[in-house]
Write a structure and sequence with these properties.
The protein has about 675 residues and is of the alpha/beta class. Helices cover about 50% and strands about 15% of the residues. The radius of gyration is 35 Å and the shape is elongated.
């Protein structure tokens, strides 16, 4: 029986075939259009130009190798046949090998030392490949002489490397092209930073700067010329170098320069009234603009404190935050905003900024969006003390990590506003920590202060109790990792001594110092934020760090009087002679010297640079919980006097988790679990 296809089915098949043919044709057209468009892109045109030039140079090198081999007396016919039979293969083969080694991935004006290493490798491999290929597959009866291979290798190396060097030299332009105009600049540091500054000055003549030489402590560089500039001597020889060269300005071109070096430079220049500027620190370079010279700034007091900088890569340090949601409280403050800046570099899925100060929150939001082009953020105007509001935030965004940086920190002001200090620093921490645990947060990092050590003020006591809350909640909520990070003062934070001194100097003085022997620990805000993020990663690395209090190594304490004198000198004045310094006596609750560890704590290393941890007997979490109830009652009553007395007394009567502590802890955890179950039911 013959089955006949109905006209309808046949029509359907023809329609399908026509449709497929049309789609295939459209697809081929789109591919062709995209390929044609790609040929006209600047990057493709530049690669084509490079390939064409290299092809001509390879041809020239191969032909010259034959001419030189036969002393320019004429190439014998059999070798001339070999040359013409193999030249296309040689050129195409070498271009393919050059491409495999990445020689066409970069514009020649940006070629550096590593690129020349790639050129050497590519030429060596291509010459070996040429020798082997023509030995086994020679198109004529004559084999390629090894002397021609050697000459071809040397000529190819010279031409391929030389053209790149010439192009870069022409584009960079020689320094003598500056003539005698412009401000004469002496550069401290003949390393990568100094060379970058020189190149920027060369390429941007409109800046009006003319580099005249380097100063560097590397004796191997002394007397050498680097990028056309002579290395004139060492930092210790700077005074005599300044007298001889008389520059208009000195630039410290070492981003990682220690404070001692910067201080030497500033002192030598100040005596001769020569302005000093500096490259930004590594932290500022990572987050700054592209034009390096435009980032050069005046030397700040942070630059001359003498602390060795921390060398950590934020992308590596913060890798544990990648592809996750991170919440930062106090996001508009000094530490909170810097945490947001650095976290924006590590590839988080979303960053939640929480603050109750509208203007601060607005500023950090605009900075992240407009300057750092980071848009994966949510801005939340909320107070950490308001449990209902904060609970909605946690349930909506479901963060995996919380950095709790929201706190009141001004000691004299908190001494006068006890209730608000405790409400914010203690109850706000308790609310945030508990909601974090109840909403599945993996890690909670609490930012603390050295004022919490052996506290004698309301502010210090409030931060000490906040540390206890974090430690106790680590036991109450074992599914969440809780840690404290404790450190001293940060330079430049709002209301700190540095902006206070700066404003007093701007007014002509006097600069007010509380006591000639008063000292404080200091670190920069970017350094503190980086180490806080690093401390958060330690929990994931080792279970023993759960509930720990990490302490950032602050170096040697700085005398406040020395800080004041340095700031006056950096402003171009002499302390005492031009700007007076007054001693006004310690304010209420101020101590002459701060500490980083309590009397019952011992310090242990973590294996991470600049991060220590404390070791002490565990607190009784039940006692902490009961103390919180007492504090909360006094806050509700508004009894400032009783609250102040109770806060300071708590630090003295701190009860330690004793022999029956584990039993109390188990009971408390069981009670918490029942409470949560009843709420969910």
């Amino acid at each position: 029986m013959v089955h006949r296809t109905s006209p309808a089915v046949s029509l359907h098949h023809r329609f399908e075939n026509d449709l497929h043919a049309q789609l295939a044709a459209s697809f081929r057209l789109l591919v062709m259009q995209s390929r044609i468009a790609s040929l006209y892109s600047p990057a493709t045109r530049h690669r084509v130009f490079q390939v064409v030039v290299d092809g001509l140079l390879i041809t020239a090198a191969y032909g010259l190798a034959f001419l030189l081999r036969f002393d320019l007396n004429g190439i014998p016919q059999r070798y001339r046949d070999l040359l013409f039979a193999t030249i296309a293969f040689v050129v195409l083969g070498k271009l393919v090998i050059f491409a495999l080694f990445g020689l066409y991935d970069k514009w020649w004006r940006y070629v550096g030392l590593r690129d020349f290493e790639s050129i050497v490798k590519a030429v060596v491999v291509s010459s070996l490949a040429l020798l082997i290929a023509l030995f086994f597959f020679s198109p004529t009866s004559v084999s390629l002489p090894r002397s021609i291979v050697a000459l071809d290798f040397l000529l190819t190396m010279a031409l391929i490397g030389g053209i790149r060097f010439i192009v870069r030299s022409v584009i960079e332009r020689p320094l003598r092209g500056f003539g005698s105009g412009g401000r004469e600049v002496l550069l401290v540091g003949a390393g990568d930073g100094g060379r970058l500054v020189v190149r920027e000055m060369v390429k941007n003549r409109e800046l009006g700067n003319r580099p005249i030489g380097f100063v560097d402590d590397d004796t191997r560089k002394h007397g050498m010329r680097i990028d056309g500039l002579k290395v004139l001597g060492s930092i210790d020889q700077l005074p005599s170098i300044l007298d001889e060269t008389d520059p208009d300005e000195v630039i410290i071109a070492i981003p990682s320069a220690p404070g001692v070096l910067r201080q030497k430079v500033v002192t030598a220049c100040r005596d001769r009234e020569i302005p000093v500027r500096t490259l930004p620190t590594v932290f500022e370079l990572l987050s700054g603009s592209v034009n390096l010279v435009q980032q050069i700034r005046d030397v700040k007091v942070e630059d001359v404190l003498g602390r060795e900088p921390v060398h950590m890569d934020i992308e590596e340090v913060g890798s544990y935050l990648a592809d996750s949601t991170v919440l930062v409280t106090g996001a508009g403050g000094s530490i909170g905003s810097e945490l947001c800046r650095q976290i924006s570099h590590v590839g988080v899925e979303k960053l939640i900024l929480v603050d109750h100060a509208e203007d601060n929150l607005f500023r950090i939001e605009r900075e992240l969006l407009e300057q750092r082009h980071f848009a994966r953020l949510s801005v939340v105007l909320a107070d950490c003390k308001e449990e209902d509001r904060l609970e909605r935030v946690f349930k909506k965004h479901r963060p995996q990590t919380v950095f709790h940086a929201a706190a009141y920190k001004h000691v004299p002001m908190m001494q006068l506003n006890t209730v608000e200090a405790v409400r914010n620093n203690v109850l706000g921490t308790r609310v945030t920590a508990q909601l974090a645990a109840e909403n599945g947060v993996k890690r909670f990092v609490h930012v603390s202060t050295d004022k919490a050590v052996n506290p004698v003020t309301v502010m210090g006591a409030s931060k000490a109790v906040a540390e206890w809350v974090v430690e106790a909640w680590n036991y109450r909520f074992p599914e969440t990792d809780f840690v404290n990070v404790r450190f001293g003062n940060v330079l430049g934070s709002s209301g700190s001594v540095v902006p206070t001194f700066r404003s007093q100097i701007a007014r002509g003085g006097p600069v007010t110092v509380t006591h000639p022997e008063m000292t404080r620990y200091f670190m920069t805000i970017p350094e503190a934020a980086l180490l806080i993020i690093r401390a958060g990663s330690l929990i994931a690395e080792d279970e023993k760090y759960r509930g720990s209090t990490f302490v950032l190594e602050m170096g040697e304490p700085v005398r406040i009087i020395d800080l004041a004198r340095n700031m006056i000198r950096l402003s171009g004045h002499e302390p005492d002679d031009e700007i007076a310094i007054e001693f006004i006596g310690p304010r209420s609750g101020e101590r002459l010297h701060e500490e980083l560890f309590n009397e019952d704590e011992t310090q242990l290393a973590t294996g991470v640079e600049k991060i220590l941890r404390t070791k002490s007997k565990k607190l009784d979490p039940h006692w902490v919980y009961q103390s919180l109830l007492q504090i909360e009652q006094l806050v509700l009553e508004g009894d400032e006097d009783s609250l102040a007395v109770r806060m300071v007394d708590l630090a003295k009567e701190k009860q330690i988790l004793g022999s029956d502590g584990e039993h109390i802890l188990a009971e408390q955890q069981s009670k918490d679990q029942k409470d949560r179950s009843s709420v969910s039911d």
